[in-house]
Amino acid sequence: MAGNSRITSTRSVYARRIFMVHKVVAEQVAGGISTTAIRIRESGIERRARFRGLAEPLSLLVALAVLIGVFSLLNERFLTASNLQNVLTQSAIPLIVAVGATLVILLGSIDLSVEGVMGATGMTWILLSANSRGGADLGPWAWVIALGVALVIGVASGLIFTALKVPSFIVTLGMWYVGLGIATMLYGTDLLPRLEDEGLKGWTSRISFGLPNSFWVALLVIGLGIFVLRSTRIGRVTLAIGNSETIVRSAGLPAFRVKVAVFAIAALLSGLGGILATVQLDIGSPTVGSGVLFIVIPAVVIGGTHLGGGKGGILRTVLGVFLLTILNNGLILSGVESSYQSAVTGAILVAAIVFAAWSQRDRLQVAK
Amino acid sequence: GCTSTAGGTATGSSGPIAKEDLVLVASVINTTNPYFIANIEGAKALSKKLDIPLEIIDSQGSSQTEISKIQAILAQGKKVVMFVNTVASSDTPTIVDAVKRAGGYVSIWWNKPDNFEPWDAGDNFVAFQKHAGVDSGRCNAKAIGDALGGKGNVIMFPGVEDSTTSATRVAGFEAEMRENYPDIKILEKQASNWDPQLANQNSKDLIAKYGDQINGVWSADDGMQLGALQAFDDAGLLNSVKFASDGLYPDTVKLMKEGYGNNAIVGETFHRGYMASAIGLYTAYQAAIGEIVPSELPKDKRDSFFDIKCVTPETLGDYAKYDTDTAAADFVDNLVETGPWDTEPATLVGGGGPEVLPKS
Amino acid sequence: MVAARQIAGGKVNDVTTTPAVLRLDSVSKSFGSNRAVRKVSLNIQSGEVIGLIGENGAGKSTLLKMLSGNYRHDEGTIAVNGREVQFRGPADALRAGIGVVHQEQSLFTNLTIAENIEVNTPMGRGGVNRLGLYNWRRLYADAAQALDLIGSHLNPKTRVSDLSFVDRQMVEIARAIRVSAASHTTPLVILDEPTAILERTETAILEREISKLRDIGSVIFVSHRLDEVMRICDRVVVMRDGELIADRPVDDVTEEELFRLMVGRETHAAVRNRRSIEATSSPIISIHDLTRAGSYADVSIDAYPGRVLAILGTSGSGRESVVRAVFGAEGFDSGSVSIAGYSGHQLSIKRAVDLGVGYVPAERKTEGMVGEMPADQNITLTHPGSAAVGPFELPRRRLSLARMWFEKLDIRPREPLHMLQDFSGGNQQKVVLAKWLNSSNLKALVLDHPLRGLDPGAAETVNAQIRSVCDGGTAIILIPDTIDEALDIADDIVVMRDGRISGVFDLGHDNPATLDLLERML
Amino acid sequence: MSKIDNEATKIAVPVLIPARGKLPSVKRLGGWHAIGPIVIFLAILVVVAILTPAFIGGGGLAIIASSSAPILLLALGQAMVLNVGSIDLSNAAIGLLGAILLALTLGPVAGLSPLIVLLATTAFGAVNGLILAYAQVPSFALTLGTLGIFQAIALVASGRTTVYVSSNGESVRSLYESGIANVPMTFWMGVLLAVALWVLLRYTRIGRGMTAIGKNESAAIFSAVRTRSLKVLAFALSGFAAGLAGIAIIAQAGSASPTGLGSDLLLPAIAAALIGGTSISGGVVNPLTVIFGALTVALVPIATTAVGIDAQAQSLVYGAVIIAVVALTMSRNKSSIVK
Ligand SMILES: Nc1ncnc2c1ncn2[C@@H]1O[C@H](COP(=O)(O)OP(=O)(O)OP(=O)(O)O)[C@@H](O)[C@H]1O
Ligand SMILES: Nc1ncnc2c1ncn2[C@@H]1O[C@H](COP(=O)(O)OP(=O)(O)OP(=O)(O)O)[C@@H](O)[C@H]1O
Ligand SMILES: [Mg+2]
Ligand SMILES: [Mg+2]
After folding, report:
1. A 54-83 residues with CB below 8 A of C?
2. For C242-256, how does the pLDDT look when each residue is reduced to its tens digit (9 = 90+)?
3. Where is the ABC transporter domain (chain C) (predicted)?
4. Cα(A129)–Cα(A125) distance, rounded to whole angstroms?
5. Rounded Cα gap, residues A236 and A233, in angstroms
6. What are the start-end ranges of the H helices in A244-337?
7. How big is the A-B interface in CB pairs under 8 Å?
């Protein structure tokens, strides 16, 4: 003890000195310096934030404009009203599904069950509506029950994912097969069910107020999606979970319920997409959703929503869907052979993400 | 040590098998396409007629699934009489090999490698059977060509690009147009992967591209045609465009009969899935019970083309009888009576060796 | 204000009449066989600021997590405002009026300040209605009010990712006191090492605000900086090995006493004999006119073998970026860094390490260690050659090597095969040091806040190790937590301000006063 | 260096860790996630054996093994990529492209052909890795894009048709036709690769670095691990494994086509890797248990057929079983948060 006394006294000298200094600093900081400094920094931050919020969608918009420009040079029919309406019709179903997919990806998860859910819902719906196989025509109840099937699949995915902690990749991959299986079993071995309701036939691509009906539906869904994401508890907690689920839990937020809800919403939207696809095709088919997943996921990614969750949004996804639909349509209109279409789309996807990431490259950055 | 592998020992058995020991097996590509569902129907009808149990294999569109499921059944030691609608041509050697090792008998439909012939593989590979694609394509081309009065523009929707079935139909269609309808122009081909949804989308894009220049639409199967019809209907163009395709699905029959879209559908080639499976299975069955000895058959009976019927709205009535509730059972009754190669409307019209594509 | 009390057999004899804001009675918590918190009893009155101190792993965070509803206690009772409570989750604790600033920052960086502050407000009471719909106007107003309460003028619409560390900490505190909205009671605010990641100058602001919190509610404040505890708190409680071993008003204790209570021994800190640069030695690291736009400019620093060079500066001074440039982790626009004679513009981490530089980053958990790998594998990660033949690793040699380092640096528990994340912060830091010391060719070691979050006892051992490395002829570049730390250990001090060097001192000749240094920092 | 060694040996003896109570035996075997895949596979197998004894007796095991071979090879490559925290959606397409190239070149260049194919597929994988590492883009999106490109190359290279091996196919064919214990060499090729990768991961500096990347990439960067090179290597290995899968496809079918055998192995292979205990978020992988993951994925559709489940219900059963199996075998010890 005695041997240390010199040391301890030096320590307390330091402590006292530091204490004094701190008083000085605290006073300095309290008066004068801080407020101006903070104000200057804040205005800088806001400007940066606003710019950053725009920068990415802006580059997407530029890319879209370039594509549209190139395609309209290659084929003058590209920019006609009828082709634009055609593009909007084609983008409607992917848009509806992509709103749900964006929410799921914002969670940091993924939903691969899209096509299965579309099949199961579409098949349930058409078999319960007026169709060429006869059977029950439940009218509006067909919608309720069909969307109920989607809801059940979505809730099941969500529950297995959250309660059993199975990665969403596998849960929804499994649910893809399950949905397809449900559709296949419902379909049975009978004739193709065709839609009998004349009012519904071709409804999706019919034009009202200048836009195709299905696109109006998509607009409604997008609007609702943006509202949910921006101004509801589910939406905000979704973003929070994407940022850090640990914090969500330690803050006592309802992570469990929100995750299940998001999977349910996504499945419902896939289901709605399935019904519209069935209406569009006029025929019930278990594979009515084929190919949708591989538009939707790249669209979300190209839109700039992070697969890790927490960053991104629905409007950017909308741009992503447009980019891919226009690309698809433009390639056909400019006469690119079907064999090369997947390569061109793939190359543009790669180019888009490399372009977007290039400026943010950093030796310490972690890209997964 | 190193041994020979892949499921049981190689027997390559010949000699008749007692009927009680047999199992019928029908392997289809999926269970959601009307054609494959009809395959199952035919197999069921034959199973009932012969009083032999039946197993169905759903390949789920995957060669690997197909092969391993077939092997799974073979491994149980059953003596199989098998009909396989192969997912890809390249699956055939593997399947034949497995069946041979298990001492079963198999008929393959639609797809096989050109150089892999039944007579080279032994008696267990009883036969390869198909409807000739070139003829089918020609039938459709004639229907459209005539309906358009030899003038106009046509778009085409092939199936999966590397499918022989689709490629032969495309070749036949193009050859017929080139040879006999020089004033008809093929505007564009968009492979639509046997997918109605994709054909629907591609139709929309091509409508946007060509508008009312399009006078005729050809699809490699009726599924895609249903998708295309809807797109043209939506665009309000149905009344002025003529359609032709392969398969004559019951849905198509109905549309043709109704005169849908100003008699939009002008030509179809006819075949029924139940006929294919029943013929395939029955051929293999005859070999299994020793009724026929494959190696003693002429080559054209082991690598066969069946009759292609070109159906037009006028002749449609003749085919109604093949879609009644008892049609499959009736066909099987006839089949057992007249044998695998001579049952109307699927009679053998020749063959032997790969289909010869018309020169372009 | 503070009632007199004494500790008798773990029981608190309380002689006040008003119910305590918080009352713990023999609270215990075990993780398996590890009894992290043992029979802790504690009373907190309204308006009291309690300092909670203890070694790393003493059980402080565990105790606090029981109060915040993150853990459930195994035994004992917890009473809030005189009512016994059983928290089933964080939401229950919030409802009872307990707000927490966790040891790890827990803000949603992708959301606005307002949302982070209001995140715990129950639906229907604040900016979120019963259906879960947001009223942004209300949300921003409420958040602004909460910020006002602690004297912060941050814009509630700003995204947290755009904030500095202090500002984030302010947001956390604002959030913690927002529990009053949830409970209608005066809040109990728990602050678990809120200052650990801050620069000293920044903590001044925070200290002022924490002191002010006593007007709003009660506070439990955890820190390893004893001087800070002494300044801020009314009362200090000390934990050791899960037990509460002392509970004193600040006026009755000295820092030395607290140190002894915490660690169970006297401080071993020894005064260092400073050496001057030997005429013959040449610098190992030589930074010349290093410039990076927007970060720092014209920085020239020489680091000599056997000497500790400390760089002082506030958080905007650019000192971190400079040392990261030395390690090749960040680029620079012009100037040069030469290491042991090698000089190149494009320096990569790999090249820096090959040249003999080591770097202990400030962000230990994310940059310094692979938490899910055993400690021994962490130690050989950078220089696998020490336990490998060609490409093949030798697990036995790796283990014995790790054991040697565990012994040398007194890393506890002595279990090199355990996952590194399961060690306490101080011991993790020692493993990170060992990772670099394990090199046969360590010429320079860059230490970025090496004592961050370490208890004073652990800090001493780590410091001792740094000294002995230095004595072995390695150049040390240190970014210390405090001026004190720099004066304690350094041979040279470089002060940076706004990206430029504002002062250079050779402690062999110079004897700068703390105020002197501080002046050059601000 | 030798000084350290001496000290180490001196100290090692007294500091021996006191046993922290007896570890349960499962844990000593490497925890549930190490033996789980084996147990689940055997459990399903037992159910099948009870329901259809003839299947197991008739060489069912050999069938499962042989049909799991391409899945296994792809799953191993995928597992290496997952281990560094990325995903490779293009590896099955690379494998199929490899098969097509092999079928095209076996005739002209004979024995050199497999080498060329492996070189090519490894290079394809490396290109993925290079773009990933240097442009720092997310692998999911990147490989989704390259997937489209490889598919198109396959389609064009094959001339949009099935490509048959014209000659010199015997040696490749023999990989499927001959084998050990009635199981074709293609499967043993997978086992061999698994063992090699296991050694790489467990006993080499390269493997340690890869695992460190998967567990904490930032820390790996700051520990001077060559993260870029190792990520490129992981993708190159995925390409190499895909090349082997291509060879296995040719060995089995003697031909290849863009939509034929092997065209639909992407998702089954990922499922196999995950069932085999690989963590989808990186840093946890055991190539040896991936073998059982692949066997399970191959077994499920075979089992549904063997047991006699209605053809139309099989896809439903398949989906449900995959979810259940992963739920049972997944390693949850990494973190409680699963994305
Ligand atoms: N999640 C956990 N699982 C198991 N044991 C734990 C866990 N958290 C804490 N412990 C145990 O509880 C003891 C106390 O840890 P705690 O985190 O409360 O220490 P602390 O006093 O906060 O340390 P520090 O000053 O470093 O923050 C530790 O020794 C540890 O063994
Ligand atoms: N998952 C766990 N399992 C077992 N012990 C754990 C676990 N997590 C933490 N611990 C124990 O908790 C104790 C303290 O952990 P904690 O995370 O609080 O570190 P710390 O010392 O507070 O670090 P720092 O000072 O850097 O904040 C350690 O002794 C460690 O052994
Ligand atoms: Mg703590
Ligand atoms: Mg701590």
Report:
1. none
2. 899 999 999 988 888
3. 22-266, 271-521
4. 6
5. 5
6. 245-250, 255-281, 293-303, 314-333
7. 96
